[in-house]
Amino acid sequence: MQSDRYDLLIVGAGHAGLRAAQAARKAACGISIGMIGAEPHLPYQRPPLSKGGLVDPQQRARSQLAPDSFFAEQRITILLGTPVARIDAAARTVEMDSGRRVGYGQLVLATGSRARALAGLEGSGHVLRTLDDAVAVGERLRPGKRLAVIGGGFIGLELAATATKAGCDVTVYEGAPQVLARLLPGHVAEPVARFHRERGVEILTDCRIAAVCPDARGGYRIESGAGVRRHDHVVAGIGVLPNTGLAEDAGLVVDDGILVDEYGRTSNPDIFAAGEVTRHPTPGCPVPQRIESWQVAEQQAACAGSSVAGVPTAYRQVPWLWSDQGDLNLQILGVVPRMAEWIIRGALDAPSFCAIAMADSAPRAVLGFNAGRDIAALRRVLGDELPVSATDLADTGMAWRAIMDRAGKVRQRAAES
Amino acid sequence: MWKKVCSLDELREGEPLGVEIDAKRIGLFLVNGQCHAIGDICPHEYALLSDGYQEQGVVECPLHQARFEIATGKCLGLPAERDVPVFEVSVEGGDVLVKFG
């Protein structure tokens, strides 16, 4: 780094760090901005890494978010491959693993998350999170290879779809009685499992892993509820953990994520946080949420970057994420309530449907199964808290415009009375 | 060269129509009664914009919410970063014609 002090220093050079830097530069032309990243790569986005980018180096290269020339043009100093060891909030300095210190006027923490590793499988290529992970996993997806995927969540199912397309024999081990168990009830998740099974993925549910051990032939032996099986490779998709260590050491309020307000402010006025390491206020939710999504890295981070640089910008988006699993496009809107009544718009055995989680007679969350147009309409319904009725939502004969018009009239009558 | 792509009465405001002509995918939209034709494939990842959500003069890609101005093809929001092509349209006797090449 050319300087030892920056007006704005961003720890984390991923998607969120970049968007924070870009927004800060736009908000404040004159300040000095530095970024420090632990990984050796320029900021990249993750969605391609579990799909085309896993098997195709060209698609992987396109995951880079800004060209090499961007940083000099925008006068943003970026230091890569440099983990930060600690933050001294009182002295306003960060110290790197090398012992070198860099001062800041204001700090943004965009440290993201790390993949949970499966006990005994900590080496490279056993999780799918970073660009390097994608290279390591991708190299192993050769036709005929037997791949075990531990965990039937989004990342596991995306990987299962990509690997199956690449000619691998894929088994998904899931401890719960269904896939996507963290989000969806069984009957709503079933069409997702069916989609994968029809394409040759073996999904073992209610199947707990007892042990995973390397075998003599360079593969792995998995002992589970399904007996003992051999696979050529094992990848775990069992969730992520927010990288909050630096924030905790710096004395920030941390509770499963760095707690921030809608401007990205932490409990220390000099420090903001951006991206999925945050727990931030969320429309429709009584408590702040930590949400692992492209949207948060893209939009919450931009709000935090703009706010830290002097242009307060609130993040108030309805949570939205997508998961492309082969040719299947899943989208989730909102935060799924603990207790919900699910209504189906369309049919669970149709190529496309929406499942809508109702609580207190209002829609709170939606799963779109190949249903992008419905998701777009429902984003407006959830964002405006339109008083739509469950009956209308379940009636595919009613177009979205009609549903929204009727809800608008209901709201107007309620306001008048 | 002008080619008929559909009849005007197949189009509804907010209900775009996707057609394939000579291996070209075209999305047809009605905006305030005016007919528009744009390249139907989102430049981000493969999806048909005619499957997307239209709100006034803007269509939103069904896959990842990239937004495009229908009259100009201009990309208005990430994750797409490129515009889509626009085609000249003419309505003659209830037929919608699009100019190719």
Q: TL;DR of this structure?
A:
The complex is a heterodimer of chains A (417) and B (101). With 417 residues, chain A is α/β, with parallel strands linked by helices. In chain A, 27% of the residues lie in helices and 27% in strands.
Sequence-ordered SSE layout with sheet pairings:
The complex is a heterodimer of chains A (417) and B (101).
Chain A: E1 5-11, H1 15-27, E2 33-36, H2 52-55, H3 57-61, H4 70-73, E3 76-79, E4 84-88, E5 93-96, E6 101-109, E7 113-115, H5 131-138, E8 146-150, H6 154-165, E9 169-173, H7 186-198, E10 202-204, E11 209-214, E12 220-224, E13 227-231, E14 233-236, E15 240-242, H8 245-249, E16 258-259, E17 271-273, E18 278-279, H9 294-308, E19 320-325, E20 328-334, E21 341-346, E22 353-359, E23 362-369, H10 372-383, H11 390-394, H12 400-416
Parallel strand pairs in A: 1-2, 1-6, 2-3, 6-17, 8-9, 8-14, 9-10, 16-18
Antiparallel strand pairs in A: 4-5, 5-6, 7-15, 11-12, 12-13, 19-20, 20-23, 21-22, 22-23
Helix pairs in contact in A: 1-9
Chain B: E1 2-7, E2 17-21, E3 24-31, E4 34-39, E5 53-55, E6 58-60, E7 67-69, E8 75-77, E9 86-87, E10 89-92, E11 95-99
Antiparallel strand pairs in B: 1-11, 2-3, 3-4, 4-9, 5-6, 6-7, 7-8, 10-11
Tell me the distance between the termini of chain B: 6 Å
Count, helices of chain A: 12
Major β-sheet profile of chain B: 4 strands, antiparallel
CATH C-level class of the largest domain in chain A is: Alpha Beta
Tally of helical runs of chain B: 0
- Indicate the radius of gyration of chain B in whole angstroms: 12 Å
Q: How would you sum up the major sheet of chain A?
A: 7 strands, mixed
What is the 3D shape of chain B? globular
User: From the helix content, strand content and strand pairing of chain B, which structural class follows?
Assistant: mainly beta
Q: Kindly state the mean pLDDT of chain A as a whole number?
A: 96
| SS content category of chain A | alpha/beta
Low-pLDDT parts of chain A are: none
Q: Give average pLDDT of chain B, whole number.
A: 92
